Amino acid sequence: MVRYFGIFLSNLLLILCLMAPASSAARPQANYTEPQQLPVFELHSGFWINLHHTLYYEARQRKAFLSRDANTSKSTAPKSVLAGKGLTDVEQKAWDDAVAYYMMNYADKDLLFTTELIQLKDQLGDFEDCDELFGRKRKFCDAGLPANLTQVLEAAAPVYRAHLWPEHDQANRRWILQVAPLVREQGVGLSERLADIYQTRWPHEKIRVDVVAYANWAGAYTTVDPLRVTISSLDPRNQGPQALEVLFHEGSHGIAEAVQKAIIRECRQRDKPIPRDLWHALVFYTTGEVIRTVLTSSPSKRLDKSNGTQASGYDTYAFREGLYQRGWRNYLDLLQRFWQPYLDGKANFDDAIARMVSSL
Ligand SMILES: [Zn+2]
What is the pTM of this model? Predict the structure, then answer.
């Protein structure tokens, strides 16, 4: 923590410089952390992709509420994200229509597993510098989306821009400013270390990260081909120095394929069922340990196995959010016994995976 603030202060000047453009909140969708300023990641706060995720979030909330049995549920309807913002009747209707469209078309689909939503998210990210999506004023702003959807988004856009976007954009910028010093100082080293661990190369191109007010249920998700990360700036799980871990955890989704393959191979050889999320527990564990080593000035603290928490220092995401306690305790034991020695340079990759699988 102390070290974190040290880094923070040393970058104060830069932060102040970066804050200057934030005052012009009406300026559309700028990618204000110029790509060359940060290594490894390219962080964006884009208007359309934020509008899209906000509509998806609200549509899910409303749908979940409506699908409850009215007789058994006493809870009240979820508040709109625009409640109390003083919308005119016309604005309210435009917003409600857009939410209804999302309820009808997208609310039942998963942002991470639905090709349609993945492509839509990527396209809306690409058009962040456009203030329209039909390309009426500028040809290159024709996003080529379905006409109905374009209409819905363009009708909701002025409402969102007037009443919520400044707030969301500011939160996104704050999140980026908070994590930027650590990425600048540690990013290259972390990416090399993680690529080494997964026996691959970190992607040559910077990974695009779209910072949004609302992401998915997990607070962040990553899609591949192209590799892109979406992270919520408002999610309490993504704050403080943990923001760095979330970034690198998501980025690792793009390079951890060898782990998945090795686990599957070892299971086949032993005719064992494939533990579907062991690789994900391993990615959580690995990113956490690597980040902890960087963020704590003292040597990494041993885990207090008696109560399953870390004795002191940096709390890794999986510990803090109770992932091991909620069903991954067995995995944690395997990771500590067989994967940690590999991280410490005392075992090789294949042996570590083989030992984990044989102990399942
Ligand atoms: Zn993950």
Answer: 0.85
